[in-house]
Amino acid sequence: MITLFALKVSAASITSKTTSKIAITICSLLLLSACSQGKSVNSLQQDFDKYKYSDYVLANLRIKIPTKNSTTVAQTPKLNLQKRSSKANINIASVVVNNGLFKPTNAGFSIDKLAKKAPLNSLLNIALKRNLDIKSMKQQAQANLEKYNQVEFLSDTLKQYAAFTDDIALTGSAKKKTGIAYPSPGLNAIKSSIIDESVKYSRLKLKQTTQDVITRVRIAYAELQTARRETYLLGQLTSQYQLLKQELQNNYATNTGELGVILQADIDIASSQNRQRLAKDKRDTQQARLNALLDVPIITRFGKLDKLTEIKLSSKHNKLKTIANKKRVEIALLKTELAKMQQIIQLSEKRLYPDLDAGFSRTKNGKFATNPKVKTNQFFAKNDAYLNETRQKAEALKLKIAALKNTTASDLQQKLSAYQSQKSTYRLYRNKVIPKAKSSLDIANNSFEAGDGGSVKIINAKVAIIKYRLLLLKALRDLQISHSKAERLSGFKIR
Q1: Which of 129, 481, 123, 108 has its CA nearest to residue 302?
Q2: Which end of the chain, N or C, is less surrounded by CB atoms within 10 Å?
Q3: Strands (E), 107-242
Q4: Sequence-ordered list of residues with C-beta below 8 angstroms from that of 304, at least 6 positions apart, any chain
Q5: pLDDT for 352-385, tens place per residue?
Q6: Is 46 exposed, middle or buried (0-12, 13-18, 19+ CB in 10 A)?
Q7: Around Cβ 451, how many Cβ atoms within 10 Å?
């Protein structure tokens, strides 16, 4: 309006001098007015720029000043993964030591010394260090650690992310040469969690293998102890049968014996010799099995073994069942598999469905839009049934875990019942049968010295004692094996 007024005045019929003064005055007013309006506009613009966003949006959209080390922000996810990988590596190294069944010692034991003495604890220490199955599973667990460096080709993504943030810091928008989308820390976090579960699964598989090796060594050792002792007892039994046959032949020659008992003695001799031969084969088999478990030369022969003794079990059965459901490695494996499956479901949902946000989304070219960016993934969108299938598998896995817990309780009850039965048998022969058999032998000796009996009764009494000792040995072996299997099933040391 002021400008139009000035034009009308200038067009009026007035003198040039007056016109000049009026024009100068009007121009001055216009200049002052424009300066005042420009200052107000700048002030309003500044206030608008200052307050147009919330604190949350302002904090997230503020353009950062470029620094010399502009890749430090991008390296943070990688450092986190390196820390997780390093921690997982330490955990893998401790699995063999903290296996739940046997605590290894640092005391060195040379393989050459096994020819003189071979204690069970020394064999277990050697097995944990040399067993090939444990080494193989440990290597597989170590290989799974490399997955931390493969989170959606993380190293390449981080380089792109660094270039992307550099461009934003310098220009306020990403250059077209990057051609990448803003990376999703949420997706990478879920993928890292999936890798965590994968590494945990491999760690549990290593623990499972370690427990299997420990149990196999213990059972093979008990079998070797039994086979050696059985070979010795059967040798004594054969000798007694041969003495018995000689006495029976003498009686037959003096017409005080029968031919049938001599034939029975021959049968007993042949039977005991065959059992002794089988015991030797069993001894060699268990020796070869231990050599393989310890990864020692096949020609290795152990010297003196530990004495086969009773293992007492003082824990209550119900308490053992409760602990077994928490400690059994097979249950932990299924739980880890379930956790991994749930993470995969979460990852699929995050790719398929949009997240809630504050109304701002970063587009591929780095600019901001006020409309939320709905994430779409054609692969997952077309395969939404995959998501439902995985959910159903997860539910099935939960039921499988519950079933395994019930099976664990049932199997543990069977093993503990077998242990109690074998303990009763062992104590029966040790405390009652063998002492009475020895008393019978004393009576036979006294009768022989008194001239009221022959040597046949003494030999029969000795044969009976040897047979009872063989039964005692079998009960003690079964007791050891049941205890080892119960510990393996429960996943912890039972005492």
Answers
A1: 123
A2: N
A3: none
A4: 116, 117, 118
A5: 554 444 444 444 444 444 444 444 444 444 456 7
A6: exposed
A7: 7
Structure tokens of 162?
């660094």
What is residue 22's three-state secondary structure? helix
Q: Of 219, 412, 214, 426, whose CA–CA distance to 316 is shortest?
A: 412
Q: How far apart are CA 407 and CA 324, in angstroms?
A: 11
DSSP string of 409-444, one letter each residue:
HHHHHHHHHHHHHHHHHHHHIIIIIHHHHHHHHHHH
Contact 314, 172 (CB under 8 A): no
Task: For residues 75 and 93, give the distance between their C-alpha atoms in angstroms, rounded to a whole number.
Answer: 27
Tokens 């997860």 belong to residue: 394
Q: For the chain, what's the residue count?
A: 495
Amino acid at 306: D
Type of residue found at 234: L
Residue 10 has which token pair?
């200038």
DSSP-based helix, strand, coil % in the chain, nearest 5:
75, 0, 25
Helix, strand, or coil (residue 24) = helix
Residue 240 in contact with residue 462, Cβ under 8 Å?
Answer: yes
pLDDT tens-digit series, residues 229-258: 999 999 999 999 999 999 999 888 888 878
Paired residues of 368 in beta bridges? 362
Which residues are 117's β-sheet partners? 304
Number of H helices, E strands in the chain: 15, 2
304 forms beta bridges with 117
Average pLDDT on 84-103 reads 78
- Cα 462 from Cα 466, distance rounded (Å): 6
Structure tokens at 169: 């810091």
Residue 27 and residue 5 in contact, taking contact as beta carbons nearer than 8 Å: no
